[in-house]
Amino acid sequence: MLVGGGCMVTEVVGRFAPSPTGALHLGNARTFLIAWLRCRSQGGRMLMRMEDLDHPRVKPETVGQVYEDLRWLGLDWDEPVDESGNLAAYVQSERLEYYRQAFNELKGKGLLYPCRCSRKDIEESQSAPHERGTGRLTAEEQKELYYPGFCREKSIEQPDNPADCSDEKAPAWRFRVDPGTTRFDDVFCGVCESDVSVWSGDFVVARNLSAPSYQLAVVVDDAAMGVTEVVRADDLLLSTHRQLKLYKSLVLNPPAFLHVPLVVGTDGRRLAKRHGDTRISEIRRCGTSPESVIGWLAYTCGWCEFGAQISAKELIRQFRLDTISIEPYVVGASDLRLLGLAG
């Protein structure tokens, strides 16, 4: 769409992309609230996509609970709409053909190869000398499991053992990572640069021909759905560099990225069961109002005083990024008491 002066204006398209591997908790809720406010404050359109490809960890019963919790918090979305006119979700397990097409495109360009290395093989290689140069890596990069390319030069067409044809023995398919820095200007974190070949090496894009990885699926989906900005937690910052490699190879335009700090426990680790029950469903069961939860989430972002009660819609005019701390928010005893999770 063109406006006066010939400038192109692009509709803002955001998305929720929960994984049905567990219930929505306070950390997820804060990220989703920021994503929703960022989109709504710009008059944008919000999509819902259920990322259910992590089959061993998927808990189908949590899908409905996630929708219910988001609606209870006042976080709505615009599409997709089902045949009855009700809001639904795009579901990744129903979109496998799109991922296969992208997989075949990458394979046709010679950018993929099969790998039969086990995780144990890769872990044992970490103590061996290689060109990774850990002294040049950030702390986060050094935590990543580096793949040294054992299978890189093996033929794509010729399996190691023709008898190895079952799904259990099917190879993982890795993307060939050329040396070189990727760079993007994160809306919250600023300029981010990294060389995937140094800290990650060739990464997996499919576990077998019917099991695409998160890295491939999210790139294909965000491009196909016209997402203009991805808002997510900053533990996925490094994944962005991998994804930018895929965007370029598939000749797709990447969205803007906005990575926000995590919510953590007093031990500094991201919220989990070890920190007690911080599920939104548990907060609801305790009788806490959605306005109290939204008020607390707003407080952690610097938009409200501690104990404020406010709706998500009322926050749209107050939304700003510069009040959010660059450090993770640590949930303490006073926070739990306010939310009805502690006596």
Q: Which properties best describe this structure?
A:
14% strand; Rossmann fold; globular; alpha/beta; three-stranded antiparallel sheet; 2 domains; 12 strands; 343 residues; disordered N terminus
Task: Write up what this structure looks like.
The N terminus is likely disordered. By secondary structure, this protein is of the alpha/beta class. The strands form five sheets. A three-stranded parallel beta sheet has the order 1-2-3, with helices on one face. The protein has a three-stranded antiparallel beta sheet with strand order 4-5-8. A two-stranded antiparallel sheet has the order 6-7. The termini are far apart. It is 31% helix and 14% strand. It contains twelve helices and twelve strands. It is globular. The protein folds into two domains: 161 residues, Rossmann fold (3-Layer(aba) Sandwich), CATH 3.40.50.620; 118 residues, Rossmann fold (3-Layer(aba) Sandwich). Helix 3 crosses helix 7 and helix 7 crosses helix 8.
Summarize the model shown.
The chain is α/β, with parallel strands linked by helices and 343 residues long.
Radius of gyration from CA coordinates: 21 Å
SSE sequence, one letter per element = EHEHEHEHHEEEHEHEHEEHHHEH
Shape: globular
Helical content stands at 25-40%
